[in-house]
Amino acid sequence: MKGMTNTQPDLLSEVESILQQPKAPPAESLAGIPSNAQPPSGSEQVEKLVLPVQDRPKMPYTKDKYIVREDPHLVAWERETRLFLRHLSPRHGHRVSAVMVYEWATGDNVARIMASGGQPSPELRKISKVLRHYFGKPYSTWIMGRKVPRAYKVPSGYYIKRHRPLTLELWFEYQQKVLEA
């Protein structure tokens, strides 16, 4: 094998060269029925309006999963939750709960609201849903001598701006890099 010269033409290169030659379809195959009609002319107005393909912007979001009507309260509470998490120091770990986020964002005390007959639980459920998306399952713990039934562990080095949002509305802003938190 060594030292032998190949005198036969390379078959693979011949096949490749045949396949690479452009082939125009015969004119008869373009017309299914014999006709003397002229080929359709292009619209000059459309040609003036459309951009070349390389200059067009990104395609819009058209997937079925994006066509969802979201709960505006969930979107608003996710914004507030992200702002809360943004203020946490990444130097060490934290334990957060939905009550903490609610009280920080509203300035109201949950215990006082419940004592006066109010129900903050719908908002707390939405905040818990967001926190569960970011940190997984909650657990029961004690914080400053008080029992917290659903606390989420925020690991040290956690930056909220690196994590995608739960809601699609905020996810779109996150993809466009215009989301505040």
Low-confidence stretches are none
> Helical content, roughly?
40-55%
Mind telling me the C-alpha Rg?
32 Å
Fraction of residues in β-strands:
5-15%
β-strand number: 3
Q: Helix and strand string, N-terminal first?
A: HHHHEHHHEEH
What structural class do helix, strand and pairing data support? mainly alpha
**Shape annotation:** elongated
How do the strands of the widest beta sheet line up side by side? 1-3-2
Major sheet: 3 strands, antiparallel
Average pLDDT for all residues: 81
Through-space gap between termini: 68 Å
> What's the tally of helices?
8
Would you write up a description of this structure?
- Strands 1-3-2 form a three-stranded antiparallel beta sheet.
- It has 181 residues and is mainly alpha-helical.
- Helix 4 crosses helix 7 (121-135) and helix 5 (98-106) crosses helix 7.
- A hairpin with a 2-residue loop joins strand 2 (139-143) and strand 3 (146-154).
- It has helices at residues 11-20, 27-30, 44-49, 72-86, 98-106, 110-115, 121-135, 168-175, and strands at 94-96, 139-143, 146-154.
- The chain has eight helices and three strands; from the N terminus they run H-H-H-H-E-H-H-H-E-E-H.
- It has a domain at 72-175.
- The protein starts with 10 loop residues before the first helix and ends in a 6-residue tail after the last helix.
- Helices cover 40% and strands 9% of the residues.
